[in-house]
Write a structure and sequence with these properties.
The complex is a heterodimer of chains A (367) and B (133). Chain A has 367 residues and is an alpha+beta fold. Chain A is built from eleven helices and 16 strands. Chain A is flat and about 100 Å long. About 37% of the residues of chain A have low confidence. Chain B is rod-shaped, with a radius of gyration of 25 Å. Chain B is 44% helix and 26% strand. Chain B contains three helices and six strands. In chain B, 26% of the residues are buried. Classes of the chains: A alpha+beta (367), B alpha+beta (133).
Chain lengths: 367, 133
């Protein structure tokens, strides 16, 4: 081929390349601009702020609105309208979710206890929170693979890092245990097991809030399942001292009382001082279904004193933790992004804690 | 005295010039295409509907918000759309910049009465009067 012929060939290739590049750019532009701009995260934050502004101002509780707040009057009192346009099935499914908890805070209570709940409002499409966290699937998965679980359902709670709530304490416990070279790979919340490998657990800042999804089981179901599990050898019954010892090693120990029927888990006792008069340390449910806290109480303490308590361990689960002995970064980041809680005062300077969880869906077809 | 170029050199030069010109034309078309996409009516309708909804979510009575919508107004003019480019019905904002289609609608959760007016040839005014009771 002579020089002229070669130049013509080069030019043809150049234009072929240009066409490919032009096609790729055009494709990218269509893909990019074909998708909607999603502003639902910004909306969630604004909604959260709007609810906070509605319930409190200048550090004081808006008593006229906050007292007597319920699911029926919440939208009206806070001037919210959760109607949406009728596209993408938005109108039928509902695209907003708001949850508000108000506690009458008593600082004399033991750590981990938020105080008496005076309001619990849940409005909108709860599936939005489930979808966002997508934890149900993870929980089911981890339970199926690793451990026999007496039973589980699902529930939500939002917790405040500044309040030293369960999650906070659990995070501290786990981190402390990690520093003591105890292998903690997984953890149990009340009524359910969470594979902590998937989450970013860390100690929270005082002003930082955390949202936590937990599971909760109808207690009779859990109890019956536990009895069945013992019979079939899936779980093993322990005495109190063994229970605390295993819990300190990061192994999940389940506590179930026969009558009245309650369920809890043994909390790691970081001071490692077992007192047979007190029994194992308990992490148990709080004042309403779904809220849990490390009560700082003990098996033979006031809450569980008169109960017929049994301790169970899941051997397979325990063995796995001990044999692996691997310390992994335990994280709860995914649970951390969209709950908010803060303190306010009323006119008589009583202290309250407000927890707000808001989420906006509005997922468009091609998002 | 000018030195005459040989025939082969002339061909080589003209081919390169044509090649460069075609490249420039290609790039110009590409840039024009990109700009036309970013400023298209459909994109602006969605952008402004959502922007206005977010603004209204964060407002309280009695606020007046002026929003620069110059590019949207230009597009509406270019598309020969003569209606109101922003409509607020209940808690739904609709922005429509062309005769085809229904525009883009987006809801806001703040339960307020809002009226919108063109302030001048660039800005739109949103007046949040009171809470809907």
């Amino acid at each position: 081929m002579n020089i002229k012929g070669a130049e013509k060939m080069t030019a043809v290739y150049w234009f072929a390349i240009l066409l490919v590049v032009a096609g790729a750019i055009a494709y990218m532009v269509f893909v990019f601009y074909g998708k909607p701009y999603s502003v639902s995260n910004a909306e969630s934050k604004i909604l959260e702020n709007k609810i906070a502004d509605c319930l409190a101002g200048g550090g004081y509780l808006n008593e006229e609105i906050a007292f007597g707040l319920n699911n029926d009057n919440f939208l009206d009192r806070c001037n919210l309208n959760f109607e949406t346009e009728d596209v993408f099935d938005w109108k039928d499914k509902g695209q907003y979710y708001a949850e508000v908890n108000i506690y009458n805070f008593n600082q004399n209570l033991k750590e981990g206890y938020a105080g008496t709940q005076i309001s619990n409002v849940v409005v909108g499409n709860k599936n939005l929170v489930e979808e966002k966290l997508n934890l149900e699937e993870k929980l089911s998965e981890s339970i199926r693979i690793d451990v026999y679980q007496p039973g589980f359902g699902k529930g939500y709670t939002s917790e405040n890092g500044g309040l030293v709530t369960t999650c906070n304490l659990w995070a501290r416990d786990f981190l402390d245990m990690r520093s003591k070279n105890v292998g903690v790979r997984k953890g149990v919340t009340m009524g359910g097991l969470i594979d902590f490998e998937d989450y970013d657990i860390r100690c929270l800042n005082p002003n930082e809030s955390i949202e936590k999804v937990i599971v909760s089981t109808p207690i009779p179901v859990a109890f019956e399942n536990a009895i069945e599990a013992v019979k079939s050898g899936i779980i093993k019954e322990l005495n109190a001292e063994e229970a605390q010892k295993l819990a300190n090693e990061g192994i999940v120990v389940w506590i179930i009382s026969v009558e009245p029927r309650h369920e809890a888990i043994v909390s790691p006792d970081l001071k490692n001082v077992y007192d047979e008069k007190k029994g194992p340390k308990i992490a148990q449910t709080g004042g309403k279904p779904g809220i849990m806290y490390i009560s700082n109480s003990y098996a033979w303490g006031s809450n569980w004193k008169d109960y017929d308590i049994r301790f169970y361990v899941f051997p397979k689960y325990g063995e796995k933790i001990i044999s692996e002995g691997v310390l992994e970064e335990i994280t709860l980041n995914k649970l951390n992004s969209f709950a908010r809680s803060f303190y306010v005062l009323d006119k008589a300077n009583n202290k309250y804690v407000i927890e707000i969880l808001a989420n906006v869906g509005k997922s468009e077809k091609n998002e | 005295m000018k030195k005459r170029l040989k025939k082969g050199s002339t061909t080589f030069l003209s081919e390169n010039i044509i090649f460069i010109v075609l490249n420039l034309v290609f790039l110009t078309i590409l840039i024009l295409f990109l700009f036309s996409k970013t400023g298209s009516a459909a994109v602006l309708e969605e952008k402004y509907a959502k922007q206005i909804a977010l603004i209204l979510d964060a407002t309280k009575p009695v606020m007046e918000i002026s929003l620069n919508m110059e590019d949207a107004l230009k597009i509406a003019h270019k598309e020969k759309f003569e209606g109101s480019i922003v409509k607020i019905q209940g808690n739904i904002v609709t922005v429509k910049l062309r005769n085809e289609g229904n525009g883009y609608s987006y809801s806001f959760f703040n339960d307020v009465e809002v009226n919108s007016y063109p302030l001048d040839d660039k800005n739109y005014l949103f007046v949040v009067s009171e809470y809907v009771k």
